[in-house]
Amino acid sequence: MVTARTRAWDIAARVCDPEVPVLTIEDLGILRDVREGEDGVVVTITPTYSGCPAMDTIRQDLTLAFSVEGYDRVEVDLVLAPAWTTDWMTDAGKRKLSEYGIAPPIGRAADRGPVRLQLGVKCPRCGSLHTREVTRFGSTSCKALYECRACLEPFDFFKVH
Ligand SMILES: [Zn+2]
């Protein structure tokens, strides 16, 4: 039997991230909790960084997703601590990113000290590690723009943080 919590979680888990539409908020790891009470559903989200403008869109998309399923009242709680890190991204999410042409974050933010070692970023198109950073800020602040020296294609790298 499917419990109410699981059904509500599944509804929330289908909502996609507006900045990386190939990822759901569950893939990204920002969906923290879904509770169903007498007053409606309370969804807890940890934004990828504070002040992320995508949160307004996610809030609207969640409200819509639940209203389609017959839930009238949806509250979206933002929890800023502990801060989201790319470590919360699921393996399925990383795979989808790569298939989409964005190099997924590598290594674990938690394993890193104050000095951040630059690990080799793999080209999502040809798999070469012979890549270089073009600019630290790509199409969104979550991503850096890279260039592959093997296939000469530019690509986004989802920064580890
Ligand atoms: Zn390449």
From TrEMBL:
Organism placement in taxonomy: Bacteria, Bacillati, Actinomycetota, Actinomycetes, Micrococcales
Residue span, PaaD zinc beta ribbon domain: 117-159
Any Pfam family hit: FeS_assembly_P
Full protein name: Phenylacetate-CoA oxygenase subunit PaaJ
Gene: paaJ
InterPro entries: Fe-S_Maturation_MIP18, FSCA_dom_sf, MIP18-like, PaaD-like, Zn_ribbon_PaaD
Taxonomic superkingdom: Bacteria
MIP18 family-like domain residues: 14-77
